[in-house]
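Suppose a classmate hands you a notebook page containing two proteins, each written out with its sequence and a corresponding row of structure tokens. How would you begin to make sense of it? This section walks through that situation. The first entry is reproduced here exactly as it would appear on such a page.
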Amino acid sequence: MDENIVKAETKQFIVVKLGGEQYGIDIRYVDNIVRLQKITRVPKIQPYFKGIINLRGEIVPVMSIRTKMGLPADEFTDASRIIILKIEEQGAIGIIIDAVKEVVTLSTNEIDKVAYDAKDEKSNFINGVGKHGEELISLFDINCIIGEKEVV
């Protein structure tokens, strides 16, 4: 075997559905995936925050990516899930998604960066597009999704 062949770096993503589209979440940020449960409303928070849940004694804020991205409101089904993300500086946060599809491994040469388009609200939250077979998966920029900055 030729030692000069450079192995492309790979990343794993959990593929989730939001509306009719597929999005990838870097698996390094995913702490847990839980069924939808009672979300306790909290007054005077941003409209995309749905409230908080009690996850094994830990209070976790839950947000709607759909609301934050300007998509139609969440439609809860048996497939709806809350993905618990762990971000070092911010602790845990839950995001509501329509369904979990699969885990995929993408090499860096299967991921294209996306051009930033200030007019396209959704592009603010996407930092790449993964090619998995014939399917395209928009890859979430987790820091933009959970960041506090408002999209204008």
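The notebook's second entry, a different protein, reads as follows.
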Amino acid sequence: MKRTYVIGCGKLGASIANDCSRRGLEVIVIDADPSSFALLDDDFSGDPKVADASDLDALKALGIENSNEAYITTGNDNLSLFLAHACAILFEIPYVYVRFDDPALGILVQSQSNIKPVYPFQLTRDRLSLLRHGGNEE
């Protein structure tokens, strides 16, 4: 069975890991700070691992090359960029989703079709524009 890896267990990473767990996926969530796992649901069925994600040998030891998808939510754009390329190119993970604060970083991953960047800045801007112009107000 292929696994889902979530690198970074802050609010976003924990939310993604919890969602994957609820959907019955085998989830490995990685963070250097063990206290971050407190954000996981009580019924989280995945496997939290304390590791330095910038250490590629540590990621290999956790079996990341057997992953079907990886979510990178470190909160550090430079680390996230490094990890996105490592996951996509070195570990050959088919689907790599990465959160960047800086939308300009998109140019640095656009050549990799298996890296899908997300930019909270753009999502917020687009949502506010939609609301301002009479869109859905959920």
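A careful reader of the second entry would note: Residues 6 and 17 are 6 Å apart (CA to CA).
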